């Protein structure tokens, strides 16, 4: 017995020393890689790993950005490892930057709740958060797409939270379906009284498509409020704010004006591209015109982007086609639109922001930022491996 234990002792010592040595090596390489990853950036590298100023991968998916007093604030979904990461386990993450390349972690701006009765209880689905600033109330207002825990994507609600500071913390106010009991501004009188019901028609037939265009789902949801899924927020030059969201079973976009304090709806809203099946709306204004980029509806999988232009935010909107050009343009370079960012201090300078989703491991979703060119009659987005703000004049 004694001899045998000696036999085991020698290999055990060797193994232990190897483990200690390997540990030392890996600690050393981690340190080295930390030094490498906490580098300063001076360009955008679409689709590449993008670290914050601590050298940690930026975690702000489906995001949007506001500019306030010399600083950009990027808000997005904090994702975690594995498919569970598609549900909200943490909340909305915020980063701050002065140059758009280097982002400092500002922490979680809105936390999911530990209260199982809260609409934003941990495990709900909280997507595409966008923050706008209300100059009159001096409050930062965050809107997002909310799905109640355990209900899949059926709740289709809008969530709203406010804060006195851009980076938060934000206090959740409520969730709701927009504009209950109110017809859209561009809705025909005869459509209000139609008796057609969604289950009396076979889906995707010409008759069903016509009924969708004529407000089949607006009518169905009239009393409870309109469905609210992929969304963005926009403050116009006159201070009026709007939410643009996929509604009516994702078949039609709606643009709804917010009330004066931006925490509720004013009751004015329109339908855009009825039956057009758009998601991922992103919007900007340039030289008096409103431009929109959206995706089609294929879940997490990429598809071709679409674009549109209007002289008034409430339309009519004219379709402009796929703004992406070149290789992989039919798949939006494997991304999906989330926001369009006006670059401060530059004219006609806008950045198209998209997510390259990774539903099996959402934390490893990547960001695609590309410049948008505004041509006479269309928008153009080209792939660039590496670019800087110098592309704007
Ligand atoms: C596509 C949407 O754009 C995402 O935000 C998310 O809701 C996925 N669908 C879910 O499949």
Automatic annotation (TrEMBL):
It holds the Pfam family Glyco_hydro_43. Gene3D superfamilies: Glycosyl hydrolase domain, family 43. SUPFAM superfamilies: Arabinanase/levansucrase/invertase. Signal peptide: none annotated. It comes from the Bacteria. GO terms for molecular function: hydrolase activity, hydrolyzing O-glycosyl compounds. The keyword ATP-binding does not apply. One of its GO terms (biological process) is carbohydrate metabolic process. InterPro entries: Glyco_hydro_43, Glyco_hydro_beta-prop_sf. Keywords: Glycosidase, Hydrolase. Belongs to the glycosyl hydrolase 43 family. This is Beta-glucanase. It comes from Microbacter margulisiae.
